[in-house]
């Protein structure tokens, strides 16, 4: 960590003006150290400032930064203009960021959203340290896939989408490149592990194709042949909640008892009722299929392996929330 040539090369990298271009060569020269280049756009004058973090195997770290002559002075780095604390103004009424965050306090009851924010940070941390460069051909392929997934099949549709979301072409390329980088990271994490995971846990991906309905009060289980008619009548009289009737369920996404009853039910029978968040759920089983390691299931396996990898990183991460009630944020930090 106190290697003189390494620190001298690090300073040379930062003072080059384009440190991102020389980062891979620096890493190749010093493979024993993990490096991360941190870029920060200064809100005060728009200048771009870089710092280099160098970690050894024991977790110790050196932080290096370099400031050219007559650049933004150190005491002004991180300074924000007063207006930058505002999020919205309606009819002259200001909404500061702090007020908007207070209005979103319900996030702590939506653990999936809070967990996604943490996961995104962990993924970006890894990409900052070990992100493989994306070729022009790979970027174009990722862009085409991005557009197809959103039905943006013409240039006019793509431009309209960009205008609606207020993003430039450069910002769109950055978004697509990040998605492609995350997909590549997911494939690297899962490499060589898909078959063994599927052999051990593949049963979780078994499929049940069902018709289902959620009732406000506990329903009388109808005759299977009249299930859809019963659902229609219940919806018409207000005792069934609106929602998707036909669905594909994976065994691993259900509770243990529900999964057992649905996946052991003969096709054509009704399972339930099951207690749900808003009432009682009835399910008519139409077909049950064991999982097969095809392209779709392989993608699901990769995502589950990636999810487990993120959870392991989360268990050792230092997580700090800067808003919300302390007793609620503490639970999201574990």
From TrEMBL:
Any Pfam family matching the protein: Rotamase_2
SUPFAM superfamilies from the UniProt entry: FKBP-like (SSF54534)
Residue runs in coiled coils: none
Full protein name: TIGR04500 family putative peptide maturation system protein
Lineage: Bacteria, Bacillati, Actinomycetota, Actinomycetes, Streptosporangiales
NCBIfam families: PpiC_rel_mature (TIGR04500)
Annotated PpiC domain residues: 247-291
Example GO molecular function: peptidyl-prolyl cis-trans isomerase activity
InterPro entries: PPIase_dom_sf (IPR046357), PPIase_PpiC (IPR000297), PpiC-rel_mature (IPR030985)
